[in-house]
Design goal:
188 residues, 0% strand, mainly alpha, elongated, 5 helices
């Protein structure tokens, strides 16, 4: 089925999901970066000016940094900026590439889903661990892994859908390039 055959509702839903994921990750990325910078800068100034520092200033960046990293991982995946090997896909006959790409993206989504489930089971265990000063549960940092993997699973399912709905390799190209689905590819 050609991308142009997809309905406007389908395209709108796809874009809305992707925009929501991107916007959420951008907010997490920028807010965690800003807070970490402010805390570390303030603590450094205090150390030089007064010889003392904020006791909790080491814990908060430790708690926020995994969220910053996971937001960046999800954004990189959305933009197709992770390293990929494509030699096997490129060696396949044109008629097999689309179903193989779809199957690969579904497998990736399933693996991310497995990581979400495994992290979910670990949350109860690490919830009992507390940070020394703020007494925050260890599940705060583990939750970012679960949330990030869930978002990556959604993006992988979206890529599987786009791969399946894209024109077969060697088929007639889509007349309007803006209507063609964007399937993340290798980025070097």
């Amino acid at each position: 089925m050609q991308a142009a055959d997809r309905g406007p509702v389908e395209r709108t839903v796809e874009r809305a999901i992707e925009r929501a994921i991107v916007r959420t990750c951008q907010v997490v990325l920028w807010s965690t970066t800003t807070v970490i910078f402010l805390i570390l800068s303030t603590n450094t100034l205090l150390r030089y000016a007064t010889g003392s520092s904020l006791q909790w200033a080491g814990e908060v960046p430790e708690l926020l940094f995994p969220w910053l990293v996971m937001a960046g991982v999800v954004l990189a995946a959305q933009q197709g900026a992770h390293i990929a090997t494509t030699f096997l896909r490129d060696a396949l006959p044109a008629a097999v590439r689309r179903p193989m790409a779809t199957l690969a993206w579904v497998a990736v989504a399933a693996l991310y889903g497995t990581l979400v489930a495994a992290t979910w089971r670990m949350l109860e265990i690490v919830h009992d661990e507390r940070t020394p000063i703020l007494r925050l549960p260890g599940s705060v940092t583990y939750a970012c892994v679960m949330v990030g993997m869930a978002l990556l699973a959604v993006l992988a399912l979206q890529s599987a859908w786009r791969a399946w709905r894209s024109p077969a390799c060697g088929a007639e190209p889509v007349a309007d390039a803006s209507q063609a689905p964007r399937v993340p590819a290798a980025h070097w």
